[in-house]
Specification:
A hairpin with a 2-residue loop joins β1 (4-7) and β2. The mean pLDDT is 89. This protein is mainly alpha-helical. It contains twelve helices and two strands, in the order ββαααααααααααα. It is elongated, with a radius of gyration of 19 Å. It has helices at 14-29, 33-53, 67-74, 80-97, 101-106, 111-147, 157-167, 169-184, 187-208, 210-213, 217-224, 235-259, and strands at residues 4-7, 10-13. 73% of the residues lie in helices and 3% in strands.
């Protein structure tokens, strides 16, 4: 007897989910989208790291002798989480854009299976994005800091926590993106909304209104990455908070999916 879970008001059978996930992997592998976003998940942290570390030792630049400075120099892998969220949204909205969502759902016993399969695939790829992004940061940042006489200990203290915490951001961000994609459906609106909200609105709230921002997804990211520059909840609470936001987005997206017609 196979296990079953529920998403929104929709039951999902475990065996069927496994088959749907395998089909989703085939769909993803036949497109170039995830490869392009993976390059972005490397490129964005790389550019941020190059820019940050190049200021070390210059007037007004980063002081790499402080925990705050080291964090600023070597934590830019968190930007890969945004690409993971975009990927999650695209996995859903691309089907609406090309009008294949209806056909895909018809081949499955329920809409929840379709959505959850995308969340599973997105979470795995999201993990790859943030791991690769943070490794790119270290591959660039550590040698550059060494050339400036800064000895970096990657295996102890808050810096170690920052590294592994940043690597684990991807699945949460990707599932959040899947939920937003199911809720908004329009590809341009969902992707632009994620980028604008994350970079501008949420970034400002986390920095300038911490009593609110610390409980938003961006505040959870700051907690998981142990950002010393902002007020955030403890790291463990950050993981729970980000999981709650990802779950809430997926739930709301599933509710809309269950309530409205899906065009073929």
């Amino acid at each position: 007897m196979s296990a079953a879970v529920a998403i929104g008001s929709m039951a999902v059978d475990g065996a069927t989910l496994k088959r749907a996930t395998a089909a989703e992997w085939v769909r993803v592998r036949t497109t170039r989208t995830w490869w392009g976003l993976l390059l972005g998940a490397m490129g964005m942290p790389a550019m941020s790291t190059l820019g940050a570390v190049s200021t070390v030792g210059k007037p007004g630049g980063i002081d790499a002798g402080t925990p705050e400075g080291l964090h600023q120099a070597l934590s830019n892998g968190f930007s890969s989480a945004l690409l993971a969220a975009v990927l999650g949204a695209l996995l859903v909205t691309t089907e609406y854009r090309h009008r294949t969502a209806g056909d895909s759902i018809t081949l499955l016993p329920g809409r929840g299976t379709w959505l959850l399969a995308k969340a599973v695939v997105a979470s795995v790829l999201g993990l790859v994005y943030t791991i690769v992004g943070q490794l790119t940061v270290l591959a660039i940042g550590v040698p550059m800091l060494g050339s400036k006489g800064v000895d970096v200990d990657l295996w102890h203290g808050d810096l170690f926590g920052t590294i592994w915490g940043t690597c684990l951001l991807g699945p949460f961000a990707a599932v959040f993106g899947v939920g937003i994609g199911a809720l908004v459906r329009n590809q341009v609106a969902s992707v632009a909304g994620l980028v604008i909200y994350t970079i501008l609105l949420e970034g400002a709230l986390v920095k300038f209104l911490p009593e609110v921002g610390r409980y938003l997804p961006g505040g959870a990211i700051a907690a998981i990455a142990l950002d010393p520059g902002v007020d955030h909840v403890p790291m463990a609470a950050g993981f729970l908070l980000y999981a709650a936001w990802a779950g809430a987005a997926l739930y709301v997206g599933a509710r809309r999916l269950a309530a409205q017609d899906v065009a073929g």
